[in-house]
Structure formats: structure tokens, C-alpha cells
Design a protein that fits this description.
Helix 1 runs antiparallel to helix 6. The two termini are 29 Å apart. By secondary structure, the chain is an alpha+beta fold. The chain has a four-stranded mixed β-sheet, covered by helices on one side. Strand 3 and strand 4 form a beta hairpin.
Length: 217
């Protein structure tokens, strides 16, 4: 059965591949699983039909038969468990890959999302200039630790895994700032992820949605 995922009808990232459906698209492309996409507007995301799939009114969601999932990390984990290619066969290596999935979403992503909030929603606050350096320093602390761990390796733990997929998508959220460029090891790591054919297919599919929406197609 072909799963169906939801994505923004008009993505606020303007086709840059930073919306969280990108993670799910990439995972499905990596494992060679065809999928359908149902586009939803911001108003539709708050309607009962969508809230039945995602109680917080966000994207993406994942439907396959009588299974409905929300939260991008959980969806990627489900895909990785159901298909070969995103989690190692060795039990210990598999556990480490899953650990990196949690690290990407629980340790790296929160301060990076916080920067986006500070830049987009708090710019006019009187305390903005005082808060911004604190947020950036938190990110730099995590990036320095991650860079030291990655060192000269291509991927986080042996072969490419779902941990790398999520980590790369999290780090790409810094593309609007110059912080990532301060860490050449991580910039190269993200570039390797973006060079994967599955990423490029997923990115092209997501960009096509924005292009069609912006052209009125």
C-alpha cells in the first residue's frame, strides 16, 4: 500500500526544503518507497479532519492503511524500521543510530528553532538584542560538540542512517544564518547529505509544490 503524507500547500520556507515534510520525503526516497502527498492549507490544518490525524494541527502526517502517524521523527523511525537502508542490521549499531535520531531532535533542534523564533517573531521586542547572542551561543556550543564528535568521518556512526538524515535536516535550518559556516566539518557533512540522490529527489518534489503555488499553477 502506498502511504500518503501531508505537506504545506504554501510552505513558509519558500521551497528551501526546511519544512518537516522534507524529512519524511527524504526517508521514503532513501528506501525506495513510493508515496502520495496531500497538500493542506493553514486553515485546513486546524479543521477537525486534519486534527484527527495531527492533534496539534501541523504537518507532516503519515497514513498507510489503518495506520495514521504524526511527528516527523516518529514517521522517519517507522519508515526506517519497516524498510532496509536507514537503520543498521547490527543491534548495537542500530541502537546508536536511534540515539542520534533523538539527539538531532532533542538536543540540536530546540536551540536552532529558538533562533528562528528570535529572528522572525521577537525582532521588535525591547530585549531582542540582548537575547539573540545568548541563543546563538547555545547553538555554537552544540555545534562545537557535534563537530568534535564527527571529526573527519563522513557520517555519525559508520554508514549513513536515519540519525544522519534527521541531523542534516536539523542543521539545514541554519541556512538562513552564517553560523553553520563557522564549522567546516559540519558544513561538509550537510553538503554530503544534500548530495545524496534521495535528498535531491525529495528536495525537487518539495520545491515543485512551492513553484506551482507561486506561479498560480
Amino acid at each position: 500500500m502506498i502511504p500518503t503524507i501531508t505537506a504545506f500547500e504554501s510552505s513558509p520556507d519558500r521551497g528551501k526544503g526546511q519544512a518537516r515534510d522534507m524529512r519524511v520525503r527524504w526517508a521514503l526516497e532513501e528506501v525506495g518507497q513510493p508515496y502520495d502527498v496531500r497538500l493542506v492549507s493553514f486553515s485546513e490544518m486546524k479543521e477537525p479532519t486534519h486534527l484527527a490525524l495531527h492533534p496539534f494541527g501541523q504537518i507532516p502526517t503519515y497514513e498507510e492503511g489503518d495506520l495514521a502517524l504524526f511527528e516527523s521523527g516518529a514517521i522517519v523511525f517507522h519508515i526506517a524500521e519497516r524498510h532496509h537502508g536507514l537503520l543498521p542490521d547490527d543491534a548495537n549499531a542500530r541502537a546508536r543510530a536511534i540515539t542520534w535520531m533523538f539527539a538531532a531532535l532533542s538536543t540540536l533542534e530546540p536551540p536552532i528553532v529558538d533562533l528562528g523564533v528570535a529572528m522572525l517573531l521577537e525582532r521588535d521586542e525591547t530585549w531582542h538584542e540582548q537575547r539573540l547572542p545568548v541563543v546563538k551561543d547555545r547553538i555554537r556550543g552544540r555545534l562545537g560538540e557535534l563537530s568534535a564528535r564527527l571529526d573527519n568521518a563522513d557520517w555519525l556512526d559508520g554508514a549513513f542512517s536515519a540519525g544522519d538524515l534527521l541531523m542534516v535536516t536539523v542543521l539545514r535550518r541554519l541556512n538562513g544564518s552564517k553560523i553553520l559556516h563557522e564549522y567546516p566539518v559540519l558544513s561538509a557533512y550537510v553538503a554530503r547529505g544534500e548530495a545524496r540522490p534521495a535528498f535531491r529527489r525529495a528536495f525537487a518534489a518539495q520545491l515543485a509544490v512551492f513553484t506551482a503555488a507561486s506561479s498560480g499553477g
